[in-house]
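Weekly structure sync, notes
Attendees: PL, DS, HV (note-taker this week)

Item 1: Carbohydrate kinase
DS walked through the input record. Source organism listed as Deinococcus arcticus. Sequence as pasted into the shared doc:
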Amino acid sequence: MALTETEAALLALIRESPLAAPEDLARRLGTSRAAVNVHVSHLVKKGALLGRGYLLPPDQGPGRVVVVGGANVDVKARTLAPVVPGTSNPGAAAQAPGGVARNVAENLARLGVAVSLIAAVGRDSLGDWLLRETEAAGVDVRAVLRAPGVATGTYTAVLDPGGELVVAVAAMAATEALTPAEMQARRGVLRGAAWVVADGNLPPPTLSHLLTLAHDAGVPVVFEPVSVPKAARLRPLLASGLAPHTVTPNVAELGALLGRALPDEPGALHAAAAELQAQGVAVVWVRRGERGSLLATPQGTWELPALPAQVRDVTGAGDAMLAAFLAALLSGRPPQEAARAGHAAAALTVESEFAVSPTLTPAAIQARAGLSPQPQEAP
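Item 1 (cont.): predicted structure, written out as tokens:
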């Protein structure tokens, strides 16, 4: 269907500034916000937009990954002397982009994978900064929700002089704004994707709707539990037949997926992975920290050792592990080699002071994991 002159002008503005708020578009068009919403609805109906304020990422090829979940600002404060409770302590602080989904997305981008992020941040200065930093890292952020009346999520950690955590405050309510309706409006981004990553920060109704949308689009989903309480969000969905393709829990999270505590022993982990596979999960990758991991696939099960590393900060290791695993699968490596690549990415990350290591490249991972280059990968 042909576009009206106003619809064409609005579409051009959205292409130019995909993160613009409706009131900004209304001002530039010389009309009202209500009128902009009506024109957007017409553009969706005519197929020019795939959802309100959202355009399908262009020219990203069949290897694109969509990551859905948490995006926040990490603030780390370290005291210069032993902590004295109840008063001010001299120290130093640093701010960095964070959030499981956001970190996974940046790691994928650093590994040369086209990636789109679906998350929720506030219409505030922290949200502006977080999206600028994430986009600069190579992540498509056009599907990120700018939620009104919501503050961008923050994770604030206070460390003692030795780097041990004293206290942390997680203010992550922004992700609650990513409702099933907002997910529905962004369903177009799933089309043609190779993988969807869902982190456990998603509200249960949104996680359920995302699994349904991905199933309808024929896109496999990786579920990253994030924590023991959030891992449990998947249990009722498994019982209802909404199983992701892959889950990546640690041992405690694996127990939460099954509703019981598990010992960190190979026999128990093999049996637990088989239980999840009987519920429709194809791949179970259990992270065991210094003990490595256990990877269970329809083709077989492997126990992989952790790689030695000079640990500086463990933050973000699991996010890098998952990103490298998917990047390796997309390059054509078999699952067990992809898991080795994941362990290499984790080792590189814990040796860095950053949650996303600036040294993370395909070549660095190949060298650390002892993998031969793939024809598709950079040497």
